[in-house]
Amino acid sequence: MAHWYHILTHVRKKNYLNYLRIMYRQVAALEKNPQMLRRSHQLDGYKSKSTTPLESMIHWDIRKGAFTTEEIEKIMQFLRKSKDKNEEEHALRIIAWLYMHLGKRPLQMMSINSTSLKTVIHNEVSQYFLEIPKAKAQRGRKAEQWEITADLAKEIQLFSARPAIRPLQQEADRLFIWPSECMGRPKNETFSTSQLGGLLRRYFRGSGLTTQRDKNLPATPLIFNARRARHTVGTQMAFDGAPAEFISRVLEHDSPGSAKAYIDAVFMQLQDAINKAEYSLGGIFAGLSEVYFSGHIVEEQTDRPIFVPDWTAGLLTVGCCNLDTHVYGECKKHPFFSCYGCSFFRALRGGAHAQALDYVAGLLQRWQESEGHPERSQMVVEFERLYQGISHVVRRVKVQAL
After folding, report:
1. Which long-range contacts (CB under 8 A, 24 or more apart) does 306-314 make?
2. What's the N-to-C CA distance of the chain in angstroms?
3. How far is residue 160's CA from residue 182's CA, in Å, rounded to a whole number?
4. What single string gives the DSSP state of each residue in 291-341?
5. What is d(CA 306, CA 116) in angstroms, rounded to the nearest whole number?
6. What is the CA radius of gyration of the chain?
7. 119-123, 174-178, 359-363: range with lowest mean pLDDT
8. What CATH number should be reported for the domain holding residue 260?
9. How far is CA 238 from CA 96, 105, 146, 266, 368, in A?
10. Which residues span the domain enclosing 257?
């Protein structure tokens, strides 16, 4: 088998490499040869020489790279609130939503079975899972269940409940299929991933979504495709501090080394800002505006208290929420982390704001000591905003006490 290994490491075509790598892995498993198995793992991390670096992702290309936070908010707001004109738009909206949520490949989307949505009820709480087939080098392995949000599950249920959809799903055993009059095709049938990409491009061109990364330049139409959504999911996990192995696991990479590009992308984005900081808490947070805190300081706590999420220190209250749920509905933001920047937040004068500062400082320190580039997370940006908001409350309390 030594000559097999030599051939594999000199393959120029990516597709050929994938096929040969699968064959080598299968033979190694049948032979149960430890040396061959080790080489099989090495080959999993090998890239063909024709593979180009993911420069578009690392440099946040506006056409091919991951979406920015502002772009993500625009896309998700559109996907949640858009009114579907027909079955096609409904299906495309759900597919795009799944791309942004799970980062799966187009072939996986078009291979999802009609009965793949599963509901698990535990202690009267429902969880939703979507069974998604494998793709590329992992094709043939058992489909895996991935958790999705209740809103997304509801959209899938509404789509499947359409009168024209359910019979087609049962006939083709595919979740995403719709009538030919919507697709402009001669008959009801599934279609290729490239055709799906074309439909999504047309769908988003009609959305009117734009992006303006450079304020000195005019806004341009926002380009959406599965690859950009996949890159976004990967970089968001890198922002949150996920190790490369975890990113590869979620995105189902053929090569564990693929996830490093997402970490590099985050590092490139934050490198300049972090280099200017002195890697100290005061240095990182010093340059931000003091108007971040937009709530009010109160003397007494009402209902709906906000706690510091450090349960080892007991229940440390920093304030309460004054949101009128009858008018605005339930708040869907994360308590504590989103509260100091919310106008409905009522900061308690005698609240545990000093402990809150210590808690945030501890999070940042642990983050910087994590494996890989400690600078790579956009959570640093969120820590800056949160720390500044808490600091503003502390200063206002001190000034009013004088």
Report:
1. 306/335, 306/336, 306/339, 306/345, 307/335, 307/336, 308/336, 308/352, 308/355, 308/356, 308/359, 309/335, 309/336, 309/359, 310/355, 310/359, 313/355, 313/359
2. 81
3. 16
4. T---SEEESS--SSEEE-S-GGG---EEEEE---HHHH----SPTTTTGGG
5. 38
6. 25
7. 359-363
8. 1.10.443.10
9. 21, 19, 19, 7, 13
10. 56-268
What's the CA gap between 34 and 37, in Å, rounded?
A: 5
Same structural domain, 353 and 377: yes
How far, in Å, are 132, 143, 187, 386 from residue 149 at the CA level? 15, 19, 33, 26
Give the separation between CA 156 and CA 175, rounded to whole angstroms. 9
Q: Is there a domain that residue 140 lies in?
A: yes
Query: Tokens standing for 269?
Result: 């984005």
From residue 343, give the alpha-carbon distance in Å to each of 22, 297, 315: 56, 11, 23
pLDDT in tens, 39-69: 666 665 555 444 444 556 656 788 888 898 8
Q: Is residue 274 part of a domain?
A: no
257 and 344: one domain?
A: no
| Domain total in the chain | 3
Each residue's pLDDT tens digit, 207-263: 999 998 877 889 999 999 999 999 999 888 877 767 778 888 899 887 766 787 777
Same domain for 19 and 139, yes or no, is no
Instruction: Please tell me the distance from the alpha carbon of residue 356 to that of residue 260, in angstroms, as a whole number.
Output: 33
Tokens of 65: 């790279």
pLDDT, one tens digit per residue, over 338-367 is 777 777 888 888 888 888 888 877 766 665
The reply to whether 315 and 384 lie within a common domain is: yes
The pTM assigned to this predicted structure is 0.58
